[in-house]
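Lab notebook, bench 4. Still working through the backlog of constructs that have no structural model yet. Next entry is a single chain of 324 residues. Request: give me the structure tokens for it.
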Amino acid sequence: MARHIDILEHPQTAIDVATATLAEGLPIGLPTETVYGLAADATNPAAITRIYETKGRPRFNPLICHMSDLAMAERYAVFDPISRKLAEAFWPGPLTLVLPLRSDSGIHPLATAGLDTVGIRVPQGFAGDLIRAFDRPLAAPSANTSGKISATSADHVDDDLGERITLILDAGASVVGVESTIVKVEDGEMRLLRPGGLAASEIERVAGKALKRQKKASAAIEAPGMMASHYAPGAAVRLDATEISENETLIRFGTPDIAGIEKAVAVLDLSAAGDLSEAAANLFDFMKRADATGAATIAFSHIPDEGLGEAINDRLRRAAAPRE
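Model written out:
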């Protein structure tokens, strides 16, 4: 089983043990403000291979590389003026920028799936401190089996990957609860590759221009979280439910009128008050709880597709997509 270290009680021990483990080329469970990541040295091909093997992740699906700050990111990628403006406004925070790699970048092609671009994020808090101490970028997808529900606590990581990794750092529940927003700037235009923990409206406010959304699914995988089926529990997922059938668990937002609610195996409230930030923070944990009820289907009531609701609905649509 993986060793747990509480970073709030033992921050220096956590950094010392984590940097030693990372230097051995081994992945660790790393808390961030978005979700827990499965982190390893982005310059070490053996370490990156272990990420893919541990998650069972397709190697054509690139990994986000986490940096300690903007100065470190500049050592590995080239910033255009808009990307730099966004980085200065939102880093550290839940924003990933897809940028051209520098020709002398030490990031291994396995981490970028052979692309000439790299997704970079600067996380808040302890993760940034650890990267600064390690002085190398950390490739860190979410710490869960590929395609399944993302981890937002150390226990989630342990339940899923505890037999496959040696170290999990524990910082309690993730504050944001969904992965980062991913943006790519091309020819002066911003494209939203994945909605996430930073609302699109905030990005547009700082950049002074609109984000272009994907009009339809693209065959090209430019960033994590773009596969059609993702974030899936064991149960089937049904969206915009207005009534409940037998053998369904209901996850609702606000307190909508749901016909047949008495039939539900269980009822969970993402946010009784209709708060999208609270709903995002609870999303993956509640999906795991709903899956544990043993219901055949998890039914979600309607969630507004605005602000953080855009990220929540993106995750739910992928969770409900047909599975291979």
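Notes after review: The chain has two domains: 3-213, 236-320. Residues 276-292 form the longest helix (17 residues). Flag for follow-up if needed.
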